[in-house]
Design goal:
22% helix; 26% strand; alpha+beta; 4-stranded antiparallel beta sheet; 4 helices
Length: 212
């Protein structure tokens, strides 16, 4: 049995009547279903790091956690009474990374980590310490550090591990010719590093001073 379907069409000002038949009980072809993969939406932290790393000419050996820590510290002081954007730029510009790099961190933090925060004043009411700790550290874990800039010169000790590796370097360019001294082994380690050198450590735990 055929079921008729009447369609009215206007062609050249003339109304045409078309009759289309299909078997009884049948149904029009279903439109193919489409499924869309949800678009990837990066987290605020991922977007912040991406903005930092996309800066032309930027080269950094900071870890992702260190970069995010700087951004979160910046967000922590935005909204403090007396702290303006200009004042924060001036204070951040005095740390070891320099004003250009820290302004870039500031822009990325405002856009991604704390876009809802606002500055509350037009002039500083009281001095506020920079949110980023300046000066070399006296402890370190895995990584490569410039002695006198990233870490304090002197003697360090670590409890070590089964495969602790460390090296003192003349430069941080990956060349074996730059190795002043190195060691790979298990157990506690003690090493003395000097200003101007680089110190690389892997799987040694935390180095710290002072060492008696």
């Amino acid at each position: 049995m055929l079921v008729g379907l009447v369609v009215l069409v206007v062609v050249g000002g003339v109304l045409l009547t078309l009759q289309v038949s299909r078997p009884a009980g049948s149904s029009p072809a279903a439109m193919p279903s489409t499924s869309r993969t949800p678009a990837y939406s990066p987290s605020p932290q991922d977007a912040f790091v991406a903005d930092v790393l996309d800066t032309p000419g930027l080269s950094t050996d900071m870890t992702t956690a260190e970069m995010i820590g700087i951004g979160q510290s910046i967000c922590g002081v935005i909204g403090t009474p007396g702290i303006t954007r200009q004042y924060l730029e001036q204070e951040l510009g005095t740390v070891k990374y320099g004003p250009v790099v820290m302004t870039m961190f500031l822009n990325a933090a405002e856009a991604n980590l704390c876009p809802g925060k606002r500055y509350l004043a037009t002039a500083p009411a009281v001095p506020v310490a920079p949110p980023v700790a300046a000066g070399p550290a006296t402890s370190m874990s895995d990584g490569t550090y410039e002695v006198g800039i990233d870490i304090v010169a002197g003697k360090y000790k670590t409890s070590g591990s089964d495969s602790c590796y460390w090296s003192r370097l003349r430069a941080n360019d990956g060349s074996t010719d730059d190795i002043i001294d190195n060691e790979l082994g298990a157990g506690p380690k003690i090493v003395t590093v000097k200003a101007g050198e680089y110190f690389e450590t892997q799987d040694c735990g935390t180095w710290s001073q002072p060492v008696v």
